[in-house]
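Could you please consider the sequence and fold following this short note?
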Amino acid sequence: MSRSEKREAAFLLVYQSDFNDEPIEEIAESTISEFDMTVNSDEEAGGIVEKAKAILDNAGNADEIIARYSKTRKVERIAKVSAAIMRAALYEMDCDEDVPDKVAINEAIELCKKYAEKPDCNFVSGVLGSYYREKNGIESVNG
């Protein structure tokens, strides 16, 4: 699997966990089958599960960031798919040194295009972009 495919698989596990109380390993088994993912080895599948667990472990921090930059929606009112996408991107931006911030944002937008509604894509882009600018000390165009 490519990095993008692994990211998408981890995001799908995080998203599915919002609807399922089973352990992430069981969710992974059904999700990989349901979404017809080609996982090349048990090691690759384990890496995807570990990334999903790390994203879920960081969800509280991600939700605080989302709440800080969301001017129009409370975290609880954000579409679950959009929240899962942002949690995955924020995990990569804050915890995964192998993923540049701009790549995490661009990949999140691509996941939005595939799984979310257009207004949600704009929302996700705005939240992640605002966080990126603050994190990197970049002044906003509006001030």
Residues 118-135 form the longest helix (18 residues). DSSP finds seven helices and no strands in the chain. The mean pLDDT is 90.
